[in-house]
Amino acid sequence: MVFKIVLLFLVAMGLLAWFGKMHWLGGKRLTRTKCRDCGRYRIGKGECACKGGR
């Protein structure tokens, strides 16, 4: 009985993760690119922190 509950919970969490990755259902796609100057990751379309973005 406990095994069935845990299994159903894991399946439900997997379905939620799968739906979250579908971009046509409202999931957001992050663009991660590296800065050419400092090598840190930039998330989104803004400038890097080394260039005075923040």
From TrEMBL:
Keywords: Membrane, Transmembrane, Transmembrane helix
Residues passing through the membrane, by range: 6-26
Domain of life: Bacteria
Organism: Sulfitobacter indolifex HEL-45
Protein known as: Short-chain dehydrogenase
